[in-house]
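In response to the reviewer comment on reproducibility (Comment 2.3), we provide here a single inverse folding case reported in full, input and output, so that an independent group could reproduce the run without further information from us. The structure tokens appear first.
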């Protein structure tokens, strides 16, 4: 089954992971969520494991049967709401009320249409693209600035790196207090990541007819139950068997209505996929929200962010150098220095050189 993801794996490269870059746990969560959403899209379109999207019992053969089956998939199927279990062949599948036709039945009271499964692959791709947008936007804002300012000090060198340290420290000291927009831009991108994560939850809930928020918890609760259990939420949102109505002209020109019962193998994969996505989307929104709250706290309170950076240093001399330099730094300078500390192999020597440059 892992062959299904072969083409997706070819498009994923790890070459960018070795480059020094400004990132955060919120960005990592968004990227992981994007890849999981793409994997879900590949899975729900893998017909060699799912089979046909829909199979209908029509009473016809060949072309007419195929036409009705295709129409039912395109035009949507439906299940009946509050159906008497004694008269139901399957959950939501039974006779319509006497004296009412499909067009005469109130959908909000008598039946529920299911058309979203046609759009699942496209919606998943759209969601993956939206999750990637903040990451793409930050790359466009950074434009390799961080890697250039680091002067290759993220790697351990055999040769002398004094010139690299001096170049990076001299730049930082000369451009002090000019990095505020750089740090704020990253913070705004994190706000965008959080907005996308929360907005995606509401978008998915709307896409699934307002059932997504309660679907995950209820589905996990009933996951071990029989698939034919009428109270199982998996059958309510992703029915395995549904009804479809086909209208056609008879021999004399009169419109004939035919009722078909359709099996939807695709929903077996859809329901399991959306249980995983329910967990992933909620975890992603929670992580990005917590990270954003912490970073906003650091943005508004200089004493807290300075204490954090000093605490990250191990050597006492480095702590003293940091305390001396941080007094003159704004949020953007602190932000750049924080990510230097996370990526730089010679941070102690670098901060000592920055202190010397500032005292000149």
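Designed residues, in position order:
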């Amino acid at each position: 089954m892992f062959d299904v993801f072969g083409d997706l794996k070819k498009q994923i490269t790890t070459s960018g992971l070795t480059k020094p870059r400004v990132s955060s746990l919120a960005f990592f969560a968004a990227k992981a969520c994007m890849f999981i959403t793409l994997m879900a899209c590949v899975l729900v379109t893998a017909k060699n494991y799912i089979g046909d999207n829909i199979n209908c019992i029509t009473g016809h053969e060949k072309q007419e049967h195929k036409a009705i089956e295709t129409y039912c998939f395109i035009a949507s199927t439906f299940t009946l709401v509050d159906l008497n279990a004694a008269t139901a062949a399957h959950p939501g599948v039974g006779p319509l009320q006497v004296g009412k036709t499909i067009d005469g039945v109130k959908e909000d009271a008598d039946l529920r249409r299911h058309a979203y499964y046609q759009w699942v692959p496209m919606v998943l791709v759209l969601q993956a693209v939206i999750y990637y947008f903040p990451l793409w936007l930050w790359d466009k804002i950074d434009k390799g600035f961080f890697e250039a300012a680091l002067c290759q000090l993220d790697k351990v060198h055999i040769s002398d790196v004094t010139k690299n340290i001096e170049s990076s420290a001299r730049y930082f000291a000369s451009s002090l207090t000019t990095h505020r927009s750089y740090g704020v831009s990253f913070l705004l991108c994190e706000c965008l990541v959080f907005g996308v994560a929360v907005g995606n939850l509401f978008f998915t809930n709307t896409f699934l007819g307002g059932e997504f928020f309660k679907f995950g918890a209820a589905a996990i609760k009933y996951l071990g139950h029989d698939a034919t259990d009428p109270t199982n939420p998996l059958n309510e949102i992703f029915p395995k068997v549904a009804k479809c109505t086909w209208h056609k002209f008879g021999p004399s020109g009169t419109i004939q209505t035919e009722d078909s019962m359709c099996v939807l193998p695709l929903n077996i994969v859809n329901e399991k996929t959306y249980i995983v996505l329910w967990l992933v989307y909620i975890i992603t929104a929670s992580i990005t929200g917590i990270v954003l709250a912490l970073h906003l706290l650091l943005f508004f309170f200089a004493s807290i962010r300075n204490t954090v950076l000093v605490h990250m240093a191990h050597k006492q001399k480095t702590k003293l150098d940091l305390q001396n330099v941080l007094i003159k730094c704004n949020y953007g300078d602190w932000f750049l220095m924080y990510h230097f500390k996370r990526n730089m192999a010679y941070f102690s020597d670098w901060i000592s050189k920055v202190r010397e440059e500032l005292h000149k």
